[in-house]
């Protein structure tokens, strides 16, 4: 995410697009960030930003296997973790959203040209609020890999994550990967993360104790919002 310039100063130019992912330039900001002068218009970002509906996120929203009349195909899993600040303190009350491909590697989205089959019992989107300890938890299916249009590459299994701060304008977007995936070293998107040390932090850990307790393969992944251990987030979202 691009940090806005302080009010009154010249906006910083957008950072250079990362290589080697060819699709990155098309998704990268082409213009400097817009600076909102909150000294003269306090709260402007909140007043002009999109807002959510009045319905709170409920338990069913966090179970992506329970959104249709039947169970989805694929390997049922849980993905859970915490949202933390740079000091390791929990960030409570955060809206965490995920979206993903189905077990065959196909998104329920009209723009997805992957010929893999759709699953009538899987939409692939969920949300929840972090609790007092900053915890989130989802039940879903392990997403399949899919070919990357325009690239001679495949995307490893991954789950897209979005975390909101106190306003839509503070949204952070990133991706979670699965441990041991042979496609990880070949993913142009992961390779486009500028800091190589940040790439392993996008890979979840396998949670054996929870897998045995719940009878569902479990993965743990914490999201750190800032600081030297921050989770990498996509720019221009
Ligand atoms: Fe994806």
Order of helices and strands: HHEEEEEEEEHEHEE
For the sheet with most strands, the description reads:
5 strands, mixed
Can you tell me the number of structural domains? 1
Structural category is mainly beta
Rg of Cα set: 18 Å
CATH architecture: Sandwich
CATH superfamily: Aromatic compound dioxygenase
Helical proportion?
A: under 10%
Q: Hetero groups bound?
A: fe (ii) ion
Number of helices: 4
Please give the oligomerization state of what you see: single chain
Calculate the terminal CA-CA distance, rounded to whole Å. 7 Å
Question: Number of DSSP strands?
Answer: 11
What is the beta-strand fraction? 15-25%
Question: What is the topology?
Answer:
Elements: H1 24-27, H2 44-48, E1 76-84, E2 95-99, E3 125-129, E4 135-141, E5 146-147, E6 154-155, E7 158-163, E8 172-177, H3 188-191, E9 205-206, H4 208-214, E10 217-220, E11 223-224
Parallel strand pairs: 1-10, 1-11
Antiparallel strand pairs: 1-4, 2-3, 2-7, 5-6, 7-8, 9-10
Bound molecules: fe (ii) ion.
Fe (ii) ion (FE2) binds next to β7.
Explain the overall architecture.
- This protein is mainly beta.
- The protein has a single domain (57-224), classed as Protocatechuate 3,4-Dioxygenase, subunit A (Sandwich).
- It has helices spanning 24-27, 44-48, 188-191, 208-214; strands at 76-84, 95-99, 125-129, 135-141, 146-147, 154-155, 158-163, 172-177, 205-206, 217-220, 223-224.
- Strands 1, 4, 9, 10 and 11 form a five-stranded mixed beta sheet that branches.
- A hairpin with an 8-residue loop joins β7 (158-163) and β8 (172-177).
- The longest helix is centred in the C-terminal third of the chain and has 7 residues, at 208-214.
- The chain is globular, with a radius of gyration of 18 Å.
- The structure holds fe (ii) ion.
- Fe (ii) ion is lined by residues 155, 158, 160.
């Amino acid at each position: 995410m691009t940090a806005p310039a302080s009010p009154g100063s010249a906006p910083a130019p957008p950072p250079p697009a990362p290589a080697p992912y060819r699709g990155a330039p098309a998704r990268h900001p082409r213009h400097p960030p817009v600076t909102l002068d909150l000294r003269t218009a306090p709260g402007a970002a909140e007043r002009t930003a999109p807002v959510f509906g009045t319905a709170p996120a409920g338990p069913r929203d966090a179970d992506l296997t329970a959104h249709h009349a039947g169970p989805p195909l694929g390997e049922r899993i849980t993905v859970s973790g915490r949202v933390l600040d740079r000091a390791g303190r929990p960030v409570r009350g955060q809206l965490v959203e995920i979206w993903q491909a189905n077990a065959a590697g196909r998104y329920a989205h009209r723009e997805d040209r992957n010929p893999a089959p759709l699953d009538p019992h899987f939409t692939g989107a969920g949300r929840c609020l972090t609790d007092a300890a900053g915890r989130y938890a989802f039940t879903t299916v392990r997403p399949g890999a899919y070919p990357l249009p325009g690239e001679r590459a495949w995307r490893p299994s991954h789950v897209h994550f979005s975390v909101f701060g106190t306003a839509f304008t503070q949204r952070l977007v990133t991706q979670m990967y699965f441990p041991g995936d042979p496609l990880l070293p070949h993913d142009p998107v992961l390779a486009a993360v500028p800091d190589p040390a940040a790439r392993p932090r996008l890979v979840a850990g396998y949670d054996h104790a929870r897998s045995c307790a719940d009878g569902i393969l479990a993965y743990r992944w914490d999201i750190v919002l800032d600081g030297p251990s921050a989770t990498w987030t996509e720019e221009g979202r």
